[in-house]
Amino acid sequence: MTSLTLHGTYIFSFSIICLIFSYIFVVLSFISVELLAAGGFIVFTWPLFDLLWHPSLSVPLFGQVCFAIMIALFDGVAPVTAAEAFPSHVRCTAVAISHNLCKALLGGTSPMAATYLIDKTYNEMAPAVYLR
What we know:
Elements: H1 3-27, H2 30-51, H3 58-85, H4 91-107, H5 110-121, H6 126-131
Helix pairs in contact: 1-3, 2-3
């Protein structure tokens, strides 16, 4: 299986699961959904990263779908959480600035940090520690 196939499966499953969790959010409170996702990342990051190195086809695919589920738990409720975090007169500006700063500082430096950790520790599982 190529990485393109794995990534395509991840994107497809993420899109479907994000819609499902957005609906679940309506039934549950968004705090409980976000706490569930945070707990999932704390507990399952290392085992799921370990699945990605398996030579079989289905095992990395299962790991990618599990990561998609955990990320969809966050992303399904993130717009509502961001909208409720700020008052209406500054909402658009505050959400835009906070979202873009976080993506630039944390998301933009993630590949560099992961490469640095792998280089210094000689452990390909080091990005799992960074992800936690």
